[in-house]
Each structure stands twice: as C-alpha cells, then as structure tokens.
Amino acid sequence: MSSEPREPVSYAEDLVPGRELPLGSFTMTEADIVAYARRWDPLPIHVDPVAAAAGPHGGIIASGLHTLAVYQRLAAPVLWARTAGIGGRGLDVRFRSPVRPGDTLTGVARVDRIELRPERGRAVVWVASTLTADDGRVVLEVTVDVVVLTRPPAPDDGPGGSGRTSTGTQDT
After folding, report:
1. What Rg, from alpha-carbon coordinates, does the chain have?
2. Contact between 125 and 15 (Cβ < 8 Å)
3. Are 52 and 60 in contact (CB under 8 A)?
4. Counting Cβ atoms within 10 Å, is residue 91 exposed (0-12), middle (13-18) or buried (19+)?
5. CATH no. of 12-153
6. Disulfide check for 94: which of 34, 37, 141, 167 has CB 3.0–4.6 Å away?
7. Domain ranges of the chain
8. pLDDT at residue 158 in the model
9. Long-range pairs of 162-170 with CB within 8 A, sequence gap ≥ 24
10. pTM above the 0.90 mark?
C-alpha cells in the first residue's frame, strides 16, 4: 500500500445536481443491533427481546443512531472518500420506519444543490440520501451539507498566470 496521498476523485465542479449514486447495501442482524445498542443506546426496545416484544414495535428494532451509522458506512467509501471534502456543516435526519433484524438496507445519495464560492476555493454541496429496506420501506432520509474544495488552478493559471505551458502553447 502506498503512503502517497490519494488524489480526490471529485471536486465541487465535478458534482452535478440530480446525480444519483448507489451506496450499496447492508443487512442488519439482531446481534449487530443488540451489540450497538448495548454500547450506545441501551434502551429495552434495542437490547431486550422480551421487553421489546411487549413494546410498541413488537420486537427488537435498531437504534436510529445505528441506522445513521450504517448510512455513513455505506456513504464513506462511495461518496465521501472520493470527494475533495473539507468537512460537514450540518445534517437533517428523518427516521421513517423501524429497522428490524434481517432488514437489508440499500442506500442512494443524490446531489441536490451546489453553491460555488470560488473566491474561497470551495463550495457548499447538499446531498440527500435514503436508506430503503428490502421490503420497500424507506427507513432513513438524511440531507447533509458539506464543504467541498473547488478544483485548484493549474500552476500557470495562478494569479497573473497566462494559462500557457512553459513551451508557450495554450493549455487545453
């Protein structure tokens, strides 16, 4: 494995509003749900099968934060690791339906909006994503706004640059 930094795949100018990206799928097991909840959200509906069976959902369900973590796990290698991002600014999350053991969640992300800020060398990008269970239920909707770098100028295109290479020919 190389120790060289990897060039990001997409700068802000490469992203197109309306473009959809499949994020892949993840199956939630009862063991995963209980293990996550024991550590991070130890409520009976997440960790106790007997109490959960008597509760409003009729059985164990995943913590909403666990569901959000699954979204991030799916989005990270497909979207965030391939974008010249600086960092997230905010997110709006909606938990639409309980996630149950055995549900396979499939994610899709869509670039919603881009506000270029060329004077700062960056843009704000809004991405709306969903996770859908294998039975068609939308279980999570999340919109994130992130700061993404714009494409750096070519070396000769900096302040006072001519856009020409050292041989005097025009760059294309």
Report:
1. 21
2. yes
3. yes
4. middle
5. 3.10.129.10
6. 141
7. 12-153
8. 54
9. none
10. no
Cβ-in-10-Å burial (0-12, 13-18, 19+) of 101 comes to middle
**Mean pLDDT (the chain, rounded):** 89
Determine the longest span between alpha carbons in the chain, in angstroms.
Answer: 78
| Mean pLDDT, range 148-157, rounded to an integer | 82
30-53: pLDDT as tens digits: 999 999 999 999 999 999 999 999
Q: Specify the pLDDT at position 153.
A: 82
Closest CA to 106 of 80, 127, 135: 135
Beta pairing class for 138-149 and 122-133: antiparallel
Give the C-alpha distances (Å, rounded to integers) separating 18 from 57, 91, 129, 130, 152.
35, 19, 12, 14, 24
Residue with tokens 């800020």: 117
